[in-house]
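ok trying this again, last paste got cut off
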Amino acid sequence: MHQEAVHPARRTPACAAPPPGPRLPPEPVTAAQDHATTTTERGSFCLARCSCGWSGPARRSRDLARTDAERHRTTA
């Protein structure tokens, strides 16, 4: 009987973030609505997001991500 070689399972590095699930496009924000910003963590990175669909750059510093969110909220 012939057995095929079994390859070890591939491992994903700990730093790799899982792929995001299905995304729905953000609902457009009207002028009367405020921009609601949040910060989201992906592995060792933090990024700012807004209800208008804006997303800031990935940062290693949570404080910088919060600053990005505040800057967007005040200038948008």
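PB: full thing came through this time. The mean pLDDT is 76.
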